[in-house]
Amino acid sequence: MSDTITVNAAGLSCPQPVMETKKALSGLTSGRVEVLVDTATSRNNVSRFGENKGWRVTTEEREGGWKVILEK
């Protein structure tokens, strides 16, 4: 399994967190991508995007926001 890719999308307004996530997932068939977001809307949108692309999605609360973890 490859290393974890971390995308810091905190402070970005929609749709930028989803676009950054899409860029990180581009060309990946498996692995782990962690997306850091600071709004519930971004958390929900990134989670929905990951699920629609077939990734297993979990979220963890962290200081100042959330970590959305996409794994396949």
Describe this structure in words.
By secondary structure, this protein is α+β, with helices and mostly antiparallel strands. It has one domain (5-71): 2-Layer Sandwich (Translation Initiation Factor IF3). It has helices spanning 16-25, 40-52, and strands spanning 5-8, 32-37, 56-62, 65-71. The protein has a four-stranded mixed beta sheet, covered by helices on one side. Strand 3 and strand 4 form a beta hairpin. Helix 1 runs parallel beside helix 2.
Rg from Cα: 11 Å
CATH C-level: Alpha Beta
Looking at CATH, the homologous superfamily is TusA-like domain
Q: Sketch the topology as an H/E string, one letter per element.
A: EHEHEE
- Helix/strand-derived class? alpha+beta
Task: Calculate the terminal CA-CA distance, rounded to whole Å.
Answer: 10 Å
Strand residues, percent: 25-35%
Sheet with the most strands? 4 strands, mixed
Q: What fold name goes in the CATH topology slot?
A: Translation Initiation Factor IF3
Question: What is the spatial order of strands in the main beta sheet?
Answer: 1-2-4-3
Number of helices: 2
Low-pLDDT runs of 5+ residues are none
Tally of separate domains? 1
- Annotation, overall tally of beta strands: 4
Mean pLDDT: 95
CATH second-level architecture: 2-Layer Sandwich
The outline comes out as globular
Helix coverage percent: 25-40%
